[in-house]
Amino acid sequence: MEGSNRGDEWERGLRERLIAGDESAVADLYDQFSSFVFGLARRVTGDRTAAEDVTQDVFVACWERPAAFDPDRGRLRTFLGTLAHRRAVDWVRREEARRRRAARDAALVVRVPDVEEMVSALATAERVRAEVERLPVEQAEAIRLAYFGGKTYRQVAVELGVPEGTAKSRLRLGLRRIAAALEGTFEGNGVEQWT
Amino acid sequence: MDVMRRDEFEELLGAFALDACDAAEMAAMEQFVAAHPEVAAEVERLRAAAVGLGASDALAPPRDVRTSVFERARARRAPREQTAIEVHAEVEATLVELLGDVPESAWGLATLNGLTVRELVAHLAATESLVAMWMGAPTLPEVTEEHVESRTAGVVHMTSAWSPAEVVALWRRSVSAIRDAAPGTQTCSWFGSEMPTDLVLLVRAFETWTHTDDIRRALGRALDVPSAAALHTMAEGSMTMVPSALGASGLARPGRTARIVLTGAGGGDWTLPMHVDGAAGVPDVTLTLPVVDWCRRFSDRLRADDLDVLVHGDRSLAADVVAAAPVFAGL
Predict the structure, then answer these.
(1) Which residues numbered 67-86 in A keep a CB inside 8 Å of some CB on B?
(2) CA of B213, closest CA in chain A: separation in Å?
(3) Sequence-ordered alpha helix ranges (H) in B55-116
(4) Model pTM score
(5) Which ipTM was obtained for this model?
């Protein structure tokens, strides 16, 4: 991927300012990414208050441990998105455990949004969407359950009635194809190339 | 010794990038990635794809989330403080940059207090050179007048045939003289009394920032704010003046305590006696407002009616604090 550009420089500078304790850097970081983080957290948790908490946690964590972001290894958006998604998924799993305790045998209904529904102005999202639509249905379904439903691959396997190994490979193959589409390359029809 | 085999790692990679492993597997994967830098690029690539899934849902969070982020961040790790002298330098640099960008035709535009842009710079030269003189580093020995308006009139008259660049140079010479002299002093003469040097520098920073915005208004440009660190130090300085501002406004409230919570980047939390000789106790009133608004009110650039203050406790005491805040803001 192409890394060296103005955005990259901005991210490095921002990290240095955070490390130096410059509070304005938090403002810049927040103004650039808060809608992305909050929207992602809201989508995964389906809960406004939980999404607000996740958003706060993500930006406070960046202030507290700014060196955790390594600009040599990736982009800031990916770093923040990963932080936000993990926290959102943690919330979903805690919430599910809580609900299971509350209604042990009640059928668990988790509202899982459709991947196909995620349209927005962002070019990245458009390309991801286009690629998800082209994925084999079983891969799209597995990714949808894992990313937006907060499910582990084991839960995905149970939900889809397939072996765990199959769930793992559907997640891997589907995600690889999305990654390839984001890079504008063609990786074939879900054929494993890297392993 | 690896926590997992390479083929195990590769099998789990998709689930890992989607946060769809259990906690033990996530930890093992993280360890593997840390020990094998050659896989980092592929991990980043798949994570970026995963994040792309969620990128289409961008939604602005409620405004108070931003405020909470700053409050929580500050509680976890203190921001770097700026010294008064650094604030003074930052604010000067901002005005220098703006003045470098003033079109030839705009030097005659009127600013808020009636002076033209060029005369406003002469006013700043008048006040900075006055402080420089008080610090024992005179930059304009021929002007000894200490009354600000008369001194300004004198400097405006003296520089009326100068080029804008020459007026700017006079102002900057005085600013430098202050910054060179300040570190050796604890207090400085200030209109007949002694004031801590740091506070003098902050008062100068307030005035410079305020006039920078006056010039921006005249030019039709958007207003700007100093860095969070500078704002915080300026707010801190303004707080030490609140008790005397209340006194100077005839609003001293012996035995009463006000808490002022300033929100946003550079904000903070102060508890103050409402009388110069008092000590702060349990707050009778808490005022919460954005730090920038407080600083603009202190500089007399926001009217009390235009301030959005959240008040808990005695509302009349809150009104006193807001009314007294700009009393030291001069020309």
Answers:
(1) 73-75, 77-78, 81-82, 84-86
(2) 19
(3) 63-76, 84-99
(4) 0.72
(5) 0.78
